[in-house]
Amino acid sequence: MTLSIDNGGGKTPQRQKVMVVAEPTRESAVALHYVLSHVVFDNDVLYLLHVENPTFWNSCFKKQSSSTTITAAREGGGCHGCGCIGGDFDFLDQMKSACELVNPRLKVKVARVETDAKDKAYMIISQTNMLGIDLLVVGKRHSLANAILRQRRNGPTRGETAEYLVENSKCTCVAVQRKGQTGGYLLHTKNHRNFWLLA
Q: What string of pLDDT tens digits covers the 199 residues of the chain?
């Protein structure tokens, strides 16, 4: 299931704008791998969008009990126990470098926006509309992981965000799950559920 723009039959393919919801998670890495291997072509534009939660970052640093711990986090050690990323380690730069390595002719852009967790899906849709995105791709957790996280967190889980994006995005949205280590991908769109695509 390769999702691309219909170019009207045999003409030069129209440049498409693809957006991946970028997070420092396995699900996001799977979504990016799917896009690089099955979706984008030379001269397409790929946006890596990361939605940050400023409330989370503030509470994260307030939990640190000593200045030495905060210093270690700034040097790349991270905020132990709350999942923060260290200042010197930017996963978005790593993802962009990986894209350019796989396809040097691909135009890769990085975007960061801030909003509360409850408004994350709305912000993503707003960005797709503003940038004229043709295809939105988001990593999706397995249902069991979603059920566990729902009991531990306030606000939507990644899986629920993915479902909302699939149902409400004006552009085509694909939620991607990895099917085993070598089993390919499970793709979810508004019109296709659990579509199995070999890697």
A: 444 444 444 454 678 999 999 999 999 999 999 999 999 999 999 999 999 987 654 555 455 444 433 333 334 444 433 344 444 348 999 999 999 999 999 999 999 999 988 899 999 999 999 999 999 999 998 654 444 444 444 445 445 899 999 999 999 999 999 877 667 889 999 998 767 776 5
Length of the chain: 199
Q: What SS3 class is residue 27?
A: helix
Here the tokens at position 65 are 């009990």
Which residues have C-beta within 8 Å of that of residue 84, sequence separation ≥ 6?
57, 60, 61, 73, 78
Bridge partners for 138 per DSSP: 175
CA 94-50-43 angle, to 5 degrees, is: 65
- Tell me how far apart the alpha carbons of residues 15 and 5 are, in angstroms, rounded to a whole number: 8
User: CA nearest 106: which of 47, 49, 48, 45?
Assistant: 45
Distance CA 189, CA 28 (A): 17
CA angle 36, 39, 44 (to 5 degrees): 85
